Amino acid sequence: MAAQKNSNLEQPKTSSGFLGSIVHEVRQLGKTVERELTWATGKIQQTVDSHSSTPLLNLFHTGNVVQLVSKMTGCTLQILQAADGNLIIDARGSVGYGAYNASWTVINEGENRIRLHNNNNYLTIVDGYTQVVHVPPYSKHGVETKLHVSQAGEWALFQSISEPNQYIGVLPDGNLRPAKDSTRGPNAHFGVQLISSPYAQTQAKKQNGH
How far apart are CA 6 and CA 17, in angstroms? Predict the structure, then answer.
């Protein structure tokens, strides 16, 4: 007589189930490593950006007046007054000395951390959106008015200090892209036009040897 098989014996795991378990663990490990690498890369980039000094970044000295020309539109970041009286920003402004609503005065606080204002209306990123906040002279500034300026090629980028990894960005039609959706890509790239500088005469004298 043939021996009967015992159906109560535990069946060994199939190779596919075993391999599936390993694949799952490897994927989880990969996600963890990816997150850690992203964090480390961000910290390295932040450290490099904070200590960078280039002709472009040197335009952001305190007292300089600059215009920010969007790579997406070829026009400047400007302040406008909406129908309801509120101040808004777009990237459809003119370039040049007469474009006062597109001219931003620089306050540099070191380590490429700056504030940019137009008649005390400060560029800010609040709750994931770029906007302007009026801060009267001699008033205390909130951290939302502080931006970190960095460089990608010939372009400047402006990242929120209070909301990291959020950048002033522009859509192709000149409207602003939500900062929470903006990255270091072309939408956040700006050329910098120096309009005036309190250091120009001093620099000229030094170059002339006086």
Answer: 23
Per-residue pLDDT tens digits for 139-163? 888 899 999 999 999 999 999 999 9
Q: Are residues 99 and 20 in the same domain?
A: no
121 shares a domain with 83: yes
CB-count burial class (<10 Å; 0-12, 13-18, 19+) for 26: exposed
- Domain count across the chain: 2
Report whether 149 contacts 138 (CB < 8 A): no
Which CATH number covers residue 167? 2.80.10.50
Task: Please tell me the chain's helix, strand, coil percentages from 3-state DSSP, rounded to the nearest 5.
Answer: 30, 30, 40
- Ramachandran region, residue 120 (left: φ > 0; alpha: ψ -120 to 50; beta: rest): left
Distance of CA 198 to the CA centre of its chain: 27
Closest CA to 166 of 123, 103, 205, 110: 123
Q: What is the spatial distance between Cα 46 and Cα 25, in angstroms, rounded to a whole number? A: 32
DSSP assigned state of 167 = B
- The pTM assigned to this predicted structure is 0.71
The radius of gyration computed from the CA coordinates of the chain, to the nearest angstrom, equals: 26
Supply the DSSP symbol for 58.
G
pLDDT at 28: 63
Asked if residue 129 and residue 166 are part of one domain, the reply reads: yes
